[in-house]
Amino acid sequence: MIVKTEDLVFAYQTDDEKTVTALNGVSLEIEKGSFTAVLGRNGSGKSTLAKNINALLLPSSGVVYVNGYDTKNEEFLWEIRKSAGMVFQNPDNQLVSATVEDDVAFGPENIGVPQEEIRERVTEALQLVGMQEYEKSTLSFLSGGQKQRIAIAGVVAMRPDCIVMDEPTAMLDPQGRKAVMRIARRLNDEGITVILITHFMEEAACAGRVIVMDDGKILLDGTPAEVFEHTDEIKHAGLALPPVVDLIGRLRKRGVEVPATIISGEDFLKWVSA
Predict the structure, then answer these.
(1) Are 169 and 141 in contact (CB under 8 A)?
(2) For a pLDDT cut of 70, what percent of the chain falls above it?
(3) Which helix (H) or strand (E) holds 69?
(4) Residue 188: pLDDT band by 50, 70, 90 thresholds?
(5) pTM of the model
(6) Could you give the residue ranges of the DSSP H alpha helices within the chain?
(7) Which of 122, 195, 176 lies closest to 154 in space, CA to CA?
(8) Exposed / middle / buried, residue 224 (Cβ in 10 Å: 0-12, 13-18, 19+)
(9) If you count Cβ atoms within 10 Å of the first and of the last residue's Cβ in the chain, which end, N or C, has fewer?
(10) What's the CATH number for 30-55+87-241?
(11) 37: closest CA among 46, 27, 26, 29?
């Protein structure tokens, strides 16, 4: 078990002193090596959950464990941050150096990794995200999608057990989004636990498990096929279904027996033409 939350509550006060409960009794377990997508509209609590996993935020009540460490125990804060790396929405807010190689090396340097090993880590991380040819490049000349890949490489170079990606494609064009999702799948294939925070249903379909949040609580939890069957609940949670999933839901309501495993346009076309 890499992440476990028990009755997690996170509340904060607004400027006018009103109390807002962003997470309300969230209990979940995430297995090592898994790929979990957390879906939800703005204000659902999904990004707050991500920041609690990385100990950027601490529970108001309840508990969060990362690799067995209680995030409220300051003694283990560094171990928690090393175990669960974080990739944010805006790549420009994550990059700290002028060049690609310096930025990817920044994290390992700060935890005292020997120079020879840092060199190896930088090379491996850039190869994993497909940016090795840009090693000597200046960051300011890169596209948004390329910067996000460098930000991911910087986290990978820390060699975490888990990477929490908080809406990493929200500011990218379709090509950049596809590149980041390919990297997320590749990271998971390498054995890294991936927790993807997103509001894009088609991205969630790439995961092995989907959690839908609404109003600070877990609304649905299961495989993509299991979750996508609940079309009414998903729409009520303010999420837009992928067109093919919406079509399949309409067909099922009319009595057409579409296999539950079909959630992509490619699979649907194969089923129709079979």
Answers:
(1) no
(2) 100
(3) strand 69-70
(4) very high
(5) 0.90
(6) 46-53, 77-83, 100-110, 115-128, 144-156, 174-189, 201-204, 224-228, 231-236, 243-253, 265-273
(7) 122
(8) buried
(9) C
(10) 3.40.50.300
(11) 46
